Amino acid sequence: MEHAPSPKFVGYRPARLSPAESATRAKDFFALMDGRRSVRHFSNEPVAMEMIDDLIRAASTAPSGAHKQPWTFCVVTDPALKHAIREAAEEEERTSYGGRMSPEWLEDLAPLGTDWRKEFLDVAPCLIVVFKRPYEVMPDGSKRKNYYVEESVGIACGFLLAAARNAGLVTLTHTPSPMNFLARILGRPENERAFLLIPVGHPADYCEVPDLQRKTLHQVLVRYGG
């Protein structure tokens, strides 16, 4: 009886840090990420494409179900395409703010000062449109399922945001709903569905963000054991 070949494994021995260095790195990384904010006032200053490539490389190191890596990152810098995305996003947002959103939702958004206008989609030098891939199309035209797609792509986006913050860039997680227009404008294949639209760049000189407070550690942490 034949047996399936064993998967190939390689040794993995990452550098072991001292407890003191580990603690310092943990505190430093928290301090870095605690300064992350969602920005809607972007400068039009260009960002080097080599840097954007490295952000996407970092995002692609995220774990994924069965290592399927069910994501595509579309980098949009063409002004005409950015403007087309803005126009389509604003059309959806006008409908949302004009009645699609519940009164409770609008009440929760009020402190953020947002509305249907999305000029940052024109101004930010780079838009990264993240697509999820529920399945792959095989060479013979058949479909092969991907696993834990939402979770996998969500983690990859988190890695991307952290990498951008580490590089001194600012971002926004923008989710105009529905987002079908993104696949249409960018000509994406049927097996890709828009997941997140992330403007990336530097903050404008006049940039302001809402004065918000994050939940404290005791509000988000529950310990079981020592």
Straight-line N-to-C gap: 49 Å
Number of strands: 6
CATH architecture: 3-Layer(aba) Sandwich
SSE succession: HHEHHHEEEHEHEH
- Taking all residues together, what is the mean pLDDT? 94
CATH topology: NADH Oxidase
The number of domains is: 1
Total helices: the number is: 8
Provide the β-strand percentage band.
5-15%
* Sheet having the most strands: 4 strands, antiparallel
Helix/strand-derived category reads alpha+beta
What does this structure look like?
This protein is 39% helix and 13% strand. The chain is α+β, with helices and mostly antiparallel strands and 226 residues long. The chain has a single domain, classed as NADH Oxidase (3-Layer(aba) Sandwich), CATH 3.40.109.10. Helix 2 packs across helix 6 and helix 3 runs antiparallel to helix 7. The chain is globular and about 55 Å long.
Offer a quick outline of the entry.
This protein has 226 residues and is of the alpha+beta class.
